[in-house]
Amino acid sequence: MPLRDTDNSATLDRYLSEIGRYPLLSVAEEQALALRHRDLNDLDAGHRLVTSNLRFVVKVAYEYRSYGLRMSDLIQEGNMGLMKAVQKFDPDKQIRLISYAVWWIRAYIQNHILKSWSLVKIGTTQAQRKLFFSLARTRRELERLGGGADDVGRIARRLRVRESEVMEMQQRLDGRDLSLDAPLGDDGSASHVELLPGSGPAPDDALGADREQAMLQGHVGAALRRLDARERFIIEQRLMTEQPMTLKELGAHFGFSRERARQLELRAREKLRQGISDAAGEMLPELLAHVHEAA
Fold first, then answer.
1. Exposed, middle or buried by CB within 10 Å (0-12, 13-18, 19+), for 274?
2. What is the domain partition of the chain in residue ranges?
3. How far apart are CA 238 and CA 194, in angstroms?
4. Which of 46, 48, 78, 180 has the most CB atoms lying inside 10 A of its own CB?
5. In DSSP terms, which residues pair with 191 in a beta bridge?
């Protein structure tokens, strides 16, 4: 059964009410359905085996609610584990399905938590997995026994791991990754990414730069229109392209020498400079300086 947005208590209550309609199976009923599913590939039998145990998935998922993940996701992962268990269940073992399925349910939920907890892989060894899911519980147990919840050596001995592993895992748990898209506050109107300082210019500076660029393009366009066709070609090919023509190539294009091409370029630059100066006055000193550069 699909489950959506069960973090809403009303929706979760409705889901629990719906799955509660599926009756629990007796030992004999479960055995018969499991045999039909295994031997005859009876999909209806498999469906009944799954739906009759959905409430147990919720019970197991609630054990992991302290990890801060959406309960809907935990239940969905647990349901996947239950379906996997039904596929692999052997009724000849003479055990109840849920006794076998609980391992798969926990495995799917735990894998989801490990994958969701951090962008950096965690729980890649058996010791790390044991620590991840046992550290908080062990600290609570030691605290109830009269202190020692922060005693690394005592925790390590209890879990049969090294003290360095306990300290490393505690740092990983305390420094969990946080999505920059995670909402701030209850209304969710802002996110953490909005608190990061920007590396680019301020909005006012960016707007001013855009307007200045537009004005620059307008002045250059007006100045270019005052040049004749040959002068405009020289300016475009020497100043306004990523791969400018050489003076030799320019001379070959028009059929005259490299020196003549240089003289015409200097004249075209001067006319362009004067045209921009007439249009913009002293507003564009950087462009005027660029126009004065030698080839």
1. middle
2. 1-117, 118-176, 203-292
3. 44
4. 78
5. 183
CA–CA gap between residue 77 and residue 225 (Å, rounded)? 68
Q: What is the DSSP letter of 282?
A: T
Helix (H, G, I), strand (E, B) or coil at 294: coil
Q: Is 257 helix (H, G, I), strand (E, B) or coil?
A: coil
Q: What are phi and psi of 85, to 5 degrees?
A: -65, -40
237 contacts: CB under 8 Å, gap ≥ 6: 244, 245, 250
How far is 271 from 226, CA to CA, in rounded Å? 8
- Do the two domains 1-117 and 203-292 of this chain adopt the same fold? no
pLDDT tens sequence for the chain (295 residues): 555 544 567 888 888 889 999 999 999 999 999 999 999 999 999 999 999 999 999 999 998 887 778 888 999 999 999 999 999 999 999 899 999 999 999 999 988 888 877 644 555 566 667 677 777 777 777 777 776 666 778 877 877 778 877 787 777 666 555 555 656 555 556 665 565 555 666 666 666 667 767 776 776 777 777 788 888 888 888 877 888 889 888 888 888 898 988 888 888 888 878 877 766 554 545 544 555 554 4
Give which of 32, 71, 38, 78 is closest to 55, Cα–Cα. Answer: 78
Alpha-carbon distance 115 to 74, whole Å? 12
At 191 the three-state DSSP class reads strand
